[in-house]
Amino acid sequence: MPMTKPDAAMAAHLQARIEAISSLHRDIAMLGEATDLSALARLGDGINDRLRELHPKVLREHEMMALREQLRVISEDCRRLLDNFKPFTCPYCGCPTPEGDGLVLDAWGYFHCDGEDAGEECGARLRLDDSGRAIGYINRTLEGDTQLS
Length: 149
What we know:
This protein is mainly alpha-helical. It folds into two domains: 8-84, no CATH class; 87-149, no CATH class. Helices cover 44% and strands 11% of the residues. Helix 1 packs parallel to helix 3. The N and C termini lie far apart (47 Å). 15% of the residues are buried.
């Protein structure tokens, strides 16, 4: 079945729909950037408010349900990570990360943890914020594996 060219009103609706859905996807992706549980909750509440605002004018029922499921899954995973996260410590060995002048970063902006984990050197590479809190890390390379987290 050939597609008919949309009139001006339909073109404006389609453009608004594309922009709204794209914006929602960007907002959902921003959940992974939350640094604490309250920021995660604020982002999730904002996205839920936006979904309610857009349904049924812009979003169809099945699209809203799919976006809510994405929001739920990503929020749950982020919440689990943030619940297990101890600020200002290495996520592997639990040793404190240095602050101020004691914080030395490599050329890529990572701190190399030299704490001990079960008698072995930790070896994790940590991405730290300005205060010394680990906000990302590369897994230990003792066994030869490197995975970004």
